[in-house]
Design goal:
Helix content of chain C: 25-40%
Distance between the termini of chain C: 18 Å
Oligomer: heterotrimer
Largest sheet of chain C: 6 strands, mixed
Order of helices and strands of chain A: HHHHHHEHEEHHHHEHHH
Strand content of chain A: under 5%
Largest interface: A-B, 45 and 49 residues
Structural class of chain C: alpha/beta
Structural class of chain A: mainly alpha
Chains: A mainly alpha (about 325), B mainly alpha (about 325), C alpha/beta (about 525)
Shape of chain C: globular
Strand order of the largest sheet of chain A: 1-4
Distance between the termini of chain A: 8 Å
Strand order of the largest sheet of chain C: 6-7-8-3-9-10
Number of strands of chain C: 20
Largest sheet of chain A: 2 strands, antiparallel
Shape of chain A: globular
Chain lengths: ~325, ~325, ~525
């Protein structure tokens, strides 16, 4: 069937396919060049640090989201999981930063198990299963924190969000390592290959004897854990645990990064590098607009337009 | 024929159906009764009046969402549209009552219309389209208010304020408007061909197409309606608060979806009632009210309870659907 | 429906619906090839043919889902173009699909009147009139349930009756029924036939698609047989012997000699005595009734029967992909866990599913990844994918099965049907199975690939694999099988071995009158 459309409109189909595959990189490069040429003080180490640090939490959450979307799912609960993770940190920081971080990540894993169970075993649509946690999770976080913003003063813990290692911000290193790991998982493990197979054709995967339910539950666990990590980092960077604000609308940013990065919402494909660049692109768009004195409001409207275009392009391709 | 088998499964299904449809109503009645006995202040006219008034804003948004969800779609842009409607109303109030009402209705309907066209004509998922317009509408709002710094105030003498602050027999005007809208919504859903099409599209879109129903037109109308109602809720809120508050409506789409689902509308589409949504709204307002009454309890339990309740409802819906296919 | 009325009808009336010289192409296939077909008022016309014969394409042309590439559709003698299904419906052509195309959650009455609800003077839907009308209407269709109930609370048969009532009450002049009885119980079938009788008397023309011989001969006046997109026979049904009808459907003249050697199968195999796989008394979902099949190492067991006879269900039930009410599957004497596909796979049973597209290939993945999919865990130490190990396996099978692809990294969706099928075969062979269940392994693939697949099946059996072969092509079954089990309506109705495996015997078993005639 594809041959017919190909012969009819080879150029258009090729352009669409190319855009789908490489559009996000092209966009990042164009934006970088534009800024280097027209934005004052853009080409500085300090500015690059800022951009990367600001993109890191979204990037980390988006990695988990990409895996979930690869199975034809969606995880709306990531923002609330970040809040839960943030709320837990001050409670356990007394026992050392490592303990606090582990507790926070365990909370993310449990949240993911919960959503994953609903999706994999009860067959509830991902959007609804994770909506419940989105609604309830932030409330839970606020209850844990008694609705308070709590200052965090443990210097070791703060190092995570503000410190450097070999001149590179720790947050960026964490995001980079996680991205490499995610890439390896997707490309080089049976789990990763099962994941794209389940997203690509669920009945065929079942008939091929793949552990479909286990794969499904695992992606939500990973997404939950990564959201928790993002919550830890955001808390450290802010120097405070702020469950009412941390991760707000994070689900939207993460989905945007994934979609813009070329991972189709229809599943069966995960683009880890694309996702990273998707997160960078959205950060650059915002920075560019701000630096040219275009306000936040314009950034949001531009973001909306980018989402629509990205999904429209992806749709062209998958319907072929 | 299959009288015996279908009869037994029918009584089972009927029971399950009652549970699903009336579950929220039963919980609501029990909750009100319990609150009445437990909290001396709960039963007072003042408290009840404020309870129904609080619920009315969310109810108007939820009315549009009910239509959308019954059609198998979802509208994430309502929260932003709601806030935008409020700001536009407060802004328009300086030009008179008519502008204060029509301007937000026109803009929010237009956003809904664009949602509908993108969904019905390009086949993009409602989820992602309305996610984009959530951002867009919020961006538009910020642009209109110098990044949220400007809050348009309504002139205290304006007739417009009556819409939100006026009372008839001691009960707020928004409550009456909500009831009127719900009555009209009920008529539209249950007593018109449009309403039947909405059910058919949500229940089996392919069948609806094959039966020659105007699927695309109906979808476009639905999202336009949802946008308009969210905008109108904004109008009422602006009149009630006497200003266009820019920070409202964040997360309202989720509240709205929750109350609609709790009210027995299937998130998978094809079934639902207007009255159920009203019950869902009241239940949510009741939970809020009770938690306030307890006083010592963290008000954040409210969303925890909402989330848990949503979950229970969804799991029950799912288990029922499963037993149906067996 | 007597012979006299049938002739009257045929002689005296012009066709209500007609297709003339219709050709419909899809990329790579010729779905309809110069098909002509006429339907007269009051006629019940059987449309038969195996999968891929072009029945559903023809129906879609008649109902406006597809437009013909050549030829025309005539309605009451006038050429018409149905751009959309609704155009055909407005012209009085209604279709009752196998999967009921109604709205399950909506009330029965709502479904009957959807889109044309009776309205009060105020323009509102008049529910009381709607309920009353629906109740009255449905009585004639044997449904006296409460019409306010949601449709899904009815059995599938009754739902189909509702669809029929809806169709007829929209002033349909032509009703197309696609396998209407496939999910009906005997008593429901009776009701359906009564309704058909009445429609017949009212002059409504019916296109009746079914594979059940008994029914065809009971209700149909005439028949059109499609095969490979062409009309191979059209005429009155009563005078056409059953066995001839079946042979026309399967494309084999009875007298034609089978030594023509159309297939690539070799001699019979050396077969061990003890069955390796025993499936006993499989029953479930009204589609299988006490089906027992055994397979010995080195044996090719053919599963014969028409579409819907329970062939695929049997194969799926063996690997646990079809829910069973009863029965058991034993491999080397040990029972398999029910409903666990992975367990069946580990025990050494592989199923090549019938529908390559929905149940087979993972379109977005490469040839390599599709091949190693099922065997991935064994090829991946500690869950880490080893490309080297994969490449070895992939190379072995790509060579052995002569898979034509640009390379192992090409996307599987870009291959031809035959090569996709080989990829799927490779997927299963890579798991090192002892029993191979092949559901239509050569359907929809070109002649060359077909011969290769057939030769491979032979070779595998010689290596000692037990094979269950399902095929709609008789010659393939007869030449390829050491033993043939015949299914009809979900029951085993015969088993042929050795010289008894002839087309005539298989056809006779398939076409035989059911003992308990409905």
């Amino acid at each position: 069937m594809s041959s017919a459309t190909l012969t009819k409109a080879p150029d258009r189909a090729k352009v669409t396919a190319w855009l789908q595959n490489y559009g996000v990189y092209l966009a990042v490069v164009v934006l970088l060049l534009f800024n280097i040429a027209f934005t004052e003080n853009f080409l500085s180490a300090a500015n690059f640090r800022t951009q990367l640090v600001q993109a890191a939490p979204v990037c980390i959450v988006a990695l988990g989201m990409a895996l979930v979307i690869g199975t034809e799912g969606i995880d709306l609960s990531v923002g609330s999981v970040m809040a839960i993770s943030a709320a837990l940190i001050p409670l356990y920081l007394g026992a050392g930063p490592l303990t606090a971080i582990i507790v926070a990540i365990i909370a993310g894993v449990v949240s993911g198990l919960f959503s994953g169970y609903l999706v994999a075993y009860l067959g509830i649509q991902p959007i609804i299963a994770t909506l419940a946690l989105l609604v309830g999770g932030r409330g839970l976080a606020l209850v844990i924190a008694h609705g308070q913003l709590v200052q965090v003063r443990n210097p070791e813990f703060l190092e995570l969000g503000t410190g450097d290692f070999l001149g590179v911000p720790v947050m960026v290193i964490v995001a980079g390592v996680l991205a490499v790991l995610a890439g390896l998982v997707v490309q080089r493990t049976t789990f990763g290959r099962h994941l794209v197979a389940v997203g690509g054709n669920r009945p065929a995967s079942t008939l091929a004897g793949l552990p479909v339910k286990r794969v499904l539950i695992s992606v939500y666990v990973i997404s939950g854990a990564l959201a928790a990590v993002a919550g830890v980092l955001a808390t450290s960077r802010l120097g405070a645990s702020d469950p009412s604000d941390v991760g707000l609308l994070m689900e939207l940013s993460a989905i945007t990064a994934v979609v813009v990065g070329g991972t189709p919402l229809t599943g069966g494909r995960v683009r880890v590098l694309g996702t990273v660049f998707g997160a960078l692109l959205m950060q650059l768009v915002q920075a560019t607009l701000i630096k040219h004195n275009l306000p936040d409001s314009t950034a949001q409207m531009v973001q909306a337009a980018i989402i629509v275009v990205a999904v429209y392009v992806a749709r062209e391709r998958s319907s072929r | 024929m299959t009288a015996t088998t279908s009869q037994t499964s029918a009584s089972g299904a009927a029971f399950a159906g009652v549970l699903q449809r009336q579950g929220a109503a039963v919980v609501l009645v029990l909750g009100i009764a319990a609150a009445w006995f437990a909290f001396p202040h709960f039963g007072t006219a003042d408290n009840l009046r404020s309870l129904v008034l609080q619920g009315s804003f969310l109810a108007v948004i939820a009315l549009g969402m009910t239509f959308v969800i019954i059609s198998g779609g979802i509208d994430l842009s309502v929260g932003s549209n709601y806030a935008l409607g409020g700001v536009l109303a407060a802004y328009g109030a300086q030009y008179g009552l008519v502008v204060a009402i029509l301007l937000p209705l026109a803009v929010c309907s237009l956003i809904g219309f664009v949602n509908g066209v993108l969904i019905a004509r390009t086949g993009m998922a409602p989820f992602i389209v309305t996610l984009a317009s959530l951002l867009f509408a919020r961006g538009l709002l910020l642009a209109l208010t110098s990044e949220g710094a400007t809050t348009y105030k309504v002139d205290p003498g304006s007739a417009f304020l009556w819409l939100g602050q006026g009372t008839i027999f001691g009960v707020g005007v928004p409550v009456y408007l909500t009831l009127i809208l719900f009555a009209l919504g009920g008529l539209l859903l249950r007593r018109t061909r449009f309403g039947q099409s909405v059910f058919a599209i949500g229940g089996a879109e392919q069948s609806a197409l094959l039966m020659g129903l105007p699927v695309a037109r109906t979808k476009i109308s639905l999202y336009t309606l949802s946008g308009a109602l969210a905008g109108f809720a904004g109008v009422l809120t602006a009149a009630y608060l006497q200003s266009g508050v820019t920070v409202i409506g964040v997360g309202t789409e989720l509240d709205t979806i929750s109350v609609v689902v709790i009210g027995g509308t299937l998130l998978t589409g094809g079934a639902g009632t207007i009255i159920g949504t009203l019950v869902g709204v009241l239940l949510r307002t009741l939970i809020q009210n009770v938690i306030n009454q307890i006083g010592t309890l963290d008000s954040n339990y409210q969303t925890v309870v909402s989330g848990a309740f949503l979950l229970v409802v969804v799991v029950i819906q799912r288990l029922l659907a499963r037993s149906r296919t067996r | 429906m007597t012979a006299a009325t049938e002739e009257d009808v045929a002689m005296t009336t012009a066709p209500v619906l007609e297709v003339a010289g219709v050709t419909k192409r899809f990329p790579g296939t010729l779905a309809l090839d110069d098909v002509s077909f006429a339907l007269r008022p009051g006629e019940v016309h059987a449309l038969v043919g195996e999968n891929g014969a072009g029945k559903s394409t023809l129906i879609k042309v008649l109902t406006g889902v597809y437009q013909p590439d050549e030829g025309e559709v005539r309605h009451l003698g006038e050429p018409v173009t149905f751009k959309r299904p609704i155009d055909a419906q407005r012209a009085g052509i209604s279709t009752i699909y196998q999967e009921v195309n109604l709205v399950p959650l909506m009330s029965i009455a709502g479904n009957v009147f959807l889109g044309r609800e009776p309205r009060t003077k105020a323009g509102l839907v008049d529910w009381s009139k709607m309920y009353a009308d629906a109740r009255e209407l449905l009585k004639g269709y044997g449904i006296d349930d409460d019409v306010k109930r949601p449709l899904h609370t009815l059995g599938v048969g009754a739902q189909q009756m509702v669809a029929l009532a809806r169709a007829v009450s929209t002033d349909a002049k032509v009703v197309i029924m696609d396998e209407p009885t496939s999910s009906l119980e005997p008593r429901e079938v009776e009701t359906l036939f009564e309704v058909l009788n009445r429609l017949h008397a009212e002059g409504i023309a019916i296109v009746y698609v079914s594979h059940r011989m008994d029914e065809l001969y009971r209700v149909c006046d005439s028949v059109t047989v499609l095969r490979d997109g062409r009309v191979v026979h059209s005429g009155p049904l009563a005078t056409l012997p059953r066995i001839e009808l079946v042979s026309k459907m399967l494309g084999r003249e009875i007298k034609q000699i089978r030594e023509e050697g159309v297939t690539a199968f070799g001699e019979e195999h050396d077969v061990e005595r003890e069955p390796l796989l025993k499936a006993e008394n499989l029953s479930g979902m009204r589609k299988l009734h006490d089906v027992s099949v055994s397979i010995r190492p080195g044996e090719v067991v053919g599963l014969a029967g028409l579409l819907g006879s329970g062939r695929s269900e049997t194969a799926r039930a063996i690997v646990g992909a079809f829910p069973l009410d009863g029965g058991s599957v034993l491999l080397a004497g040990k029972p398999l866990k029910k409903g666990k596909i992975a367990a069946a796979m580990r025990a050494g049973i592989a199923l090549l599913a019938e529908d390559r597209k929905t149940d087979g290939i993972i379109p977005n993945l490469s040839v390599r990844e599709n091949i190693v999919l099922a065997a991935l865990p064994t090829l991946s130490p500690f869950g880490l994918v080893s490309k080297a190990k994969q490449d070895k396996v992939v190379k072995i099978f790509m060579d052995r099965l002569r898979i034509k692809a640009a390379g192992p990294e090409q996307k599987v969706s870009e291959l031809s049907g035959g090569n996709q099928q080989k990829v799927l075969l490779a997927r299963w062979l890579a798991t090192g199975p002892k029993i191979l269940l092949l559901d239509e392994p050569t359907r929809g693939i070109d002649v060359g690939a077909k011969a290769e697949v057939q030769a491979l099946i032979d070779e595998l059996a010689q290596e000692g694999l037990g094979v269950l072969l399902i095929s709609s092509e008789l010659e393939e079954l007869i030449d390829g099988s050491d033993r043939v089990v015949v299914l009809r309506d979900g029951s085993v109705v015969g088993e042929l071995t050795g010289d008894r495996i002839t087309e005539e015997n298989v056809l006779t078993a398939i076409a035989a009158e059911a003992d308990n005639d409905v």
